[in-house]
Amino acid sequence: MWATAVGVARVRALESEREDALFRDPLARAFATAGGLWPSSPSLPDEEAARRRRLAVSFSIVIRTRFLDDLLRQAAASGVRQVVLLGAGMDSRAFRMDWPNGTRLFEVDTATPMDFKAAVLRQERAVARCERITVPVDLRDDWPAALAAAGHDPTAPTAWIAEGLLIYLPQDAVELLLSRISALSAAGSRMGLTLGSRGVIERFGADAVPGSAASMWVSEMPDDPVGWLAGHGWEADSHTLRERAAAYGRPTNTPPEQAERPGGLISAVRR
What does pTM read for this prediction? Predict the structure, then answer.
């Protein structure tokens, strides 16, 4: 699945080249190039519906990236000095964002994408803007123990990011992940999640190309994500891509597929 993370980097690289970019990711092009997705992605069906779906996925990646960037800035402003990126992939926030002194950022992912990423970072002579700690572990294993061994302090607030991750996990794995996050979160912790909106698997996954990201989607958001997170001890807000895109000056003109429901961009605070 790490190749999907390289695809995300390609989307971020293209966004970074826009004059009105919602963020700048100077390492994204290097990740996409090393992963063989630059200057163009592999040939895909030219059918119009497939093209629209690809554009929709790219759009969602751009909006969620900006949303989570803002969440992390707010967490830092509130005094949070621990950040954990779950399924970090080609995330370059340790390198491209400004962090307060004393920030420790943990990147949790399996060894294969970690090794690929490390090679690109060496090639680019990238220097992190905070203390960056890699934690090579599969999220299906005992990652809390690996995170503790890497120096995470559960008594201090943490900002947790699970970006583009939960949609790939079956529901029982999503619940386990959230329970583990909650057990490691002191009061004042923050969390940013992206959830698959209701119906997204039916719309995108039904005729997805085998091996593509959409073909591996298995989990959608609950009907009441705010209530779901409240049951785990989090005070959450839910936002739609359409709502956030308009707020960022990037409104979409495509009509909604269905009546607007709670959105899949989640920000939450541990009380």
Answer: 0.90
